[in-house]
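Let us practice reading a record.
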Amino acid sequence: MEIRFRCSLHAVCFGILVAIAVVCGSFLLLRAYKVCRFPYPVEASEGICLHMTYLLEDWNLYKGFESYPLVVGNYPPIFFS
Protein backbone atom coordinates (compact mmCIF):
# COMPACT_ATOMS: atom_id res chain seq x y z
CA MET A 1 0.00 0.00 0.00
CA GLU A 2 2.81 2.42 0.82
CA ILE A 3 4.52 1.82 -2.53
CA ARG A 4 1.33 2.76 -4.37
CA PHE A 5 0.99 5.96 -2.36
CA ARG A 6 4.58 6.90 -3.11
CA CYS A 7 4.08 6.34 -6.84
CA SER A 8 0.90 8.38 -6.91
CA LEU A 9 2.60 11.18 -4.96
CA HIS A 10 5.41 11.24 -7.53
CA ALA A 11 2.85 11.31 -10.32
CA VAL A 12 1.01 14.22 -8.73
CA CYS A 13 4.25 16.18 -8.20
CA PHE A 14 5.29 15.47 -11.78
CA GLY A 15 1.89 16.61 -13.03
CA ILE A 16 2.16 19.85 -11.07
CA LEU A 17 5.64 20.50 -12.49
CA VAL A 18 4.42 19.83 -16.01
CA ALA A 19 1.47 22.19 -15.49
CA ILE A 20 3.80 24.94 -14.23
CA ALA A 21 6.10 24.41 -17.21
CA VAL A 22 3.15 24.62 -19.62
CA VAL A 23 1.89 27.86 -18.04
CA CYS A 24 5.37 29.45 -18.09
CA GLY A 25 5.93 28.29 -21.65
CA SER A 26 2.62 29.78 -22.76
CA PHE A 27 3.58 33.14 -21.22
CA LEU A 28 6.91 32.95 -23.05
CA LEU A 29 5.23 32.17 -26.36
CA LEU A 30 2.69 34.96 -25.86
CA ARG A 31 5.48 37.45 -25.12
CA ALA A 32 7.46 36.26 -28.15
CA TYR A 33 4.38 36.65 -30.34
CA LYS A 34 3.78 40.19 -29.06
CA VAL A 35 7.41 41.16 -29.63
CA CYS A 36 7.37 39.73 -33.15
CA ARG A 37 4.19 41.63 -34.00
CA PHE A 38 5.47 44.93 -32.50
CA PRO A 39 6.24 47.28 -35.42
CA TYR A 40 9.30 48.92 -33.83
CA PRO A 41 12.61 47.42 -32.70
CA VAL A 42 12.81 46.31 -29.08
CA GLU A 43 16.12 46.97 -27.35
CA ALA A 44 17.37 44.85 -24.46
CA SER A 45 17.85 47.82 -22.14
CA GLU A 46 14.40 49.34 -22.67
CA GLY A 47 12.92 47.53 -19.70
CA ILE A 48 15.62 48.83 -17.37
CA CYS A 49 15.15 52.40 -18.55
CA LEU A 50 11.37 52.09 -18.26
CA HIS A 51 11.64 50.80 -14.69
CA MET A 52 14.02 53.63 -13.82
CA THR A 53 11.56 56.20 -15.17
CA TYR A 54 8.84 54.69 -12.99
CA LEU A 55 11.12 55.02 -9.98
CA LEU A 56 12.11 58.55 -10.98
CA GLU A 57 8.45 59.54 -11.16
CA ASP A 58 8.25 59.33 -7.36
CA TRP A 59 11.80 60.66 -6.87
CA ASN A 60 12.62 57.23 -5.53
CA LEU A 61 15.41 56.24 -7.93
CA TYR A 62 18.45 57.06 -5.84
CA LYS A 63 18.23 55.55 -2.36
CA GLY A 64 20.74 54.83 0.33
CA PHE A 65 22.47 51.49 0.58
CA GLU A 66 20.58 50.60 3.75
CA SER A 67 17.22 49.90 2.06
CA TYR A 68 16.17 47.24 -0.41
CA PRO A 69 15.86 46.81 -3.33
CA LEU A 70 19.30 47.96 -4.30
CA VAL A 71 18.65 49.59 -7.68
CA VAL A 72 21.53 51.10 -9.55
CA GLY A 73 20.58 54.09 -11.65
CA ASN A 74 23.30 54.14 -14.28
CA TYR A 75 21.80 57.17 -16.04
CA PRO A 76 21.55 60.63 -14.46
CA PRO A 77 18.06 62.14 -14.05
CA ILE A 78 18.64 64.56 -16.95
CA PHE A 79 18.93 61.59 -19.32
CA PHE A 80 15.20 60.90 -19.01
CA SER A 81 14.03 64.42 -19.78
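A brief commentary: The radius of gyration is 22 Å.
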